[in-house]
Amino acid sequence: MKDSYFIPMMLLMLPVWAFSQTGGGSGFSLVIVNERRQPVSGATVRQLQKGTVVNSQVAGEDGRAVFAPFNKGTYRFLISSAGYQPKTTDEYRWPGPGSDTVRLVLLNTSLQEMTVTAHLPPVERKRDKTVVNVEASVTNTGATLLEVLERSPGVTVDRNGGISLNGKQGVLVMIDDKPTYLSGEDLNNLLSSMSASQVARIELMPNPTARYDAAGSAGVINIKTKKSNSDGLNGSFTTSYGQGVYPKNNNNLVLNYRKGPLNIFFNYSFSVTKYLTDLYAYRRYFADDKSVVAILQQSAYFTGTVDNHTVKTGVEYRLSQGTTVGMALTGVHIHRKGNNAAHADWLQTDGKVDSSVLTQSRPVNFFRNGAINLNARQRLSENADLSVDLDYLHYAVERKQDFDNQLLAPGGYHEVFRSNVPTTINIFSGKLDATVRVHPGVTLQAGLKSSSNHTDNASAYENLENQQWVKDDTRSNHFVYQENIHAAYGTIEGKYHRLSYQAGSRYEYTSYQAHQLGNRLQKDSTVSRNYGSLFPSGYLSYKLDTLNSLTLTVARRIDRPPFQSLNPFLYIINKYTYETGNPYLLPQYSWNYELTHQYGSLLTTGVSYSRLSNYFSQIFLSDTTKTILYYTQGNVGRAYNLGLSASVSLSPLRWWSVELSAVYNHKQLRGFSGNNYMSTIDQLHVNVNHQLDFGKGYTGELSGFYTTRSREDIQELLYPAGQVSTGMSKTVLKKKGTLKVSYRDIFYTGAMEGLTSFPDATEYFKMKRDSRVVSVAFTYRFGKSYKISRHLEGASEEKERAPNG
Q: Where are the alpha helices (DSSP H) in 431-562?
């Protein structure tokens, strides 16, 4: 019966038949050259039909962009490249000539104002990454960043905030090329408090080059916030209101001023969201002979509000033709206030209620983050560049919570206690990168990076005894963590005839010391570790003909345990469930292999294999009384993942385009967690997006995703889940404004549901959120803007394992 909820998802995928409706022939190619008739490599070529982007390609080293055969009709092409004036071609009728040459003209300061008329596709696929254009999808209206991610191709999010990419856990999440230093629930809380209106695009990179940090077994997710780079004063303002069970409001302002060598940018976002989580759990406890000895049934309802203020501002100045310096400042303030109620019934084996416990808690969380980036870029010659980035990040997090446990029976107990868990984190990072083009088509890159992370995490628990607050030293804790990572890398990238290649390696050395300070009941303890390793990566890509190419990618990566997972103190989830860290966790390492075949921009298929050693998984332990269960993490063995993937981009009709992707994984988890485990599962994740152009400024969308039964941890099985969303947009105010309406999770099927196996117990759970939401948004753009703006990319890649918002 569960699968019947997803019949609408299957209906969304019916247009795959339209694959056979494309026109015949051997495709179409454009050669992009400059005024000297030299090839312009890397130019972006977008295929337009009635002003809507239906396809896009990147020109190769020879300046050629190749398109697969497409539907009959008339098309234009929009070509853009840094330093050149964007150009829209005359109309081409297909079927027709198989190729043409387009000449680009260099930019000059007197370029007149032009207006964007093309619509970017929601997803663009490139050789090294998949790009999600957030604003191009109407159903992202009013959504949080986490909601956008879980609807992105190949991305899944579990109930604890763990993010998987293409069926694999362990993702390095970056914002503007800088790691967030967040993981698990902490990262979940930050992303769920950020609005999609802050984000321009999301880059999904399953096998990044050695230039990126080696962290992230499944790859890198890079979130690029909005930033305009057009000349003059320009920007945009977006406001949205959403209504689910509770209201949600998001606002975003982007300003940019560019004149001559000076560029100043400013981005401010403010959101107020009321949330809910409805959780049900049914736990059975077993004797040694596997007979049921007790049953615990829990229902919990968590509500609260989240206020988020985010500011990012900075300046870039071109000192000379080859020298640019810049500074960026970021500030985040998140206030989360909740009101939670949980009801636990102890049941006899026949189902009769033996006793009931009511737990009420009032969590208050503050998250503050300040960051400073200083960067410089120097062109040493026509073929050599040097860049430097210096970063300082400060996190201040405070978690306060009041608990009230009551046994609902005559003469029952009444327990009252409270906790305060403040955390401060200071991160310093420096990075140097050099690029040298030693030969036409051959580029060398090398760099150094060093980072230092100091974390101070205290937790104070107090019990109310005789109307006095008394410190509880059995739960209180003070944990200090110092981590240093030093890295060096080198890569070579080039092309020889039909063969493109990239090879590189990165060495990272890590040292850390974790110190748990003692008190009158707990001993002082210290754990330290030093380790270094080499992380090779690279690809070979061979162009079989104008349409077909094969690419083989190999990479070795690492996941370091976040400091929260090393801290052995107890964190109370409810009266019968605690979470604790493991100071002896080791890093896990992975080898990832992938072979992909690409047929123009129409079809991409792939097969992948990964092997994960020292696999750390969430594990579950019970105390001697078998009433309290502990969530923790441990190195439990190895994980193997065989994956098959396919993505199709097609346009069955000139007003209708479809993006469909599917990832199948055969996963095997082996390890020891109280018992020897071997778990095997086959899972499928599907994303589909329909874009509809009704003309006269009206566009529509119908999209959704579906995941079969899946497993991310050895002891936890997740049941099928998915959702369907729709929306519509209309350009107004002479195309300077856009009005959008969306309806997300129409059938309210986005619940997370599963079964957890403990050593002496099992637990069924189902978690619902306020995911069925109707949103209305309005965006107004002002100032000059080019058809495609030039981009000044961010500084480096720094920020992934810290506290929550």
A: none
